[in-house]
Specification:
Elements lengths: L24 H7 L10 H11 L5 E5 L5 H9 L4 E6 L2 H11 L5 E5 L2 E2 L4 E2 L2 H5 L1 H4 L3 E7 L8 H9 L2 E11 L2 E2 L10 H18 L13 H14 L4 E2 H10 L3 E13 H8 L13 H4 L5 H18 L5 E12 L1
Parallel strand pairs: 1-2, 1-6, 2-3, 6-7, 8-9
Antiparallel strand pairs: 4-5, 7-11, 10-11
The structure holds S-adenosylmethionine (SAM).
The site of S-adenosylmethionine (SAM) has 16 residues, from helix 3.
Length: about 325
């Protein structure tokens, strides 16, 4: 594979603390989900990018995470440069482990600016050498539903992508009238499984010690707030479309696909969020103490039982994925 010529004075790996940090087990655990059935949601995106990108062009993998998409792109598309941008140093550190010696991949961390109470915009982390040239395309997979500020995020993209450049955004957590009956969105599953967990806890004596807190409204509201911080309310296709348009993009296409999700794989994916069932054993953010190992195990077992009950022993359920194609 040929190398890639980065803009002059653009450094692939920034001189920042996170690049030397130890690998984070949570990040590694996320990375191992690349083999999950639901990750086939990337197939269409890879095809779209393979068609759009030519050798010598520059792609931004925004919210690139641990590099699951980037690994597929490196195999599939010759001669392009990919800048992985993410808000999580832990995830980006795992990506760096994969690609430290891969000359076609660069890395940028979006930092949270405490004083301004906002995340840095894309253009703020790319630097002048990159912005003098700008990106030919930008992709965001499995992440846009997590952005609290869609207009601000997309405006920063518009400042970083050249006129005529393409943007590919996809997610399984967008309210889409084209979704088929019986299909789920990510947050719907999570919300429902949280309800089912209360039913399971009411029936199974193993969870009797945790029942009292379910009656404590103030505590339950505090646990709910923790979960709501990660899983934002589901927004409709139109909200994404409008925010892209207002930021200066022309939305060319909106595609809908059904993606199969393994029930136990999705249990595994959600089990990385301890706050999902915070009321089982408590959360340090609410209770100022860590749950014990036994409590953590109860929480995981309850979550798993709840997934199995919700999907009535099925191995797989169907989810709606939405794909936007836009042009700067
Ligand atoms: C579910 S992972 C998807 C990672 C990768 N795109 C993939 O498909 O494998 C979501 C990613 O979004 C990032 N993220 C979360 N909130 C974000 C935000 N407000 N702005 C940018 N990235 C964010 C996370 O750090 C994480 O890497």
């Amino acid at each position: 594979m040929p190398d890639f010529d980065w803009p002059k004075d653009f450094h692939r790996i920034p001189d920042e603390d996170w690049t030397d940090a130890p690998l984070d087990p949570l990040g590694q655990r996320y990375d191992s989900m690349a083999r999950h059935l639901w990750y086939r949601n990337l197939e269409l995106t890879v095809e779209q990018l393979a068609e759009a990108l030519k050798p010598g062009q520059l792609l931004i993998d925004y919210s690139g995470g641990t590099g699951i998409l980037a690994r597929q792109l490196l195999q599939r598309i010759a001669g392009i440069g990919t800048v992985m941008v993410d808000a999580s140093p832990r995830f980006l550190r795992v990506a760096l482990e994969h690609f430290r010696d891969e000359p076609r991949v660069a890395f940028r961390l979006l930092r949270y600016l405490e004083g301004e109470r906002r995340l840095q915009g894309l253009d703020e982390v790319l630097g002048p050498a990159f912005l003098a040239r700008k990106a030919d395309a930008l992709v965001s997979t499995n992440a846009v539903h997590l952005y609290p500020d869609l207009p601000g995020t997309f405006q920063a993209w518009a400042r970083s992508v050249r006129p005529g450049g393409k943007v590919f955004v996809q997610s399984g957590d967008i309210r889409n009238p084209e979704g088929k009956p019986g299909e789920w969105l990510i947050s719907q599953v999570v919300e429902k499984v949280r309800e089912v967990a209360k039913e399971v806890a009411a029936e199974d004596p193993r969870y009797a010690p945790y029942r009292a807190v379910l009656e404590d409204r103030a505590k339950m509201a505090a646990y709910d707030a923790l979960w709501r911080k990660v899983f934002l309310p589901i927004r409709p296709v139109s909200e994404y479309q409008e925010a892209l348009t207002q930021a200066g993009f022309t939305v060319k296409d909106i595609l809908t696909r059904t993606v199969d999700v393994g029930v136990l794989e999705w249990y595994e994916a959600t089990s990385v969020y301890p706050d999902l069932l915070g009321w089982v054993g408590g959360s340090p953010k609410v209770d100022k103490r860590l749950p014990t190992a036994a409590e953590v195990q109860d929480r995981l077992d309850l979550l798993k039982q709840s997934f199995l009950k919700l999907f009535k022993g099925r191995d797989i359920y169907q989810s709606t994925w939405t794909y936007f194609v836009a042009e700067r």
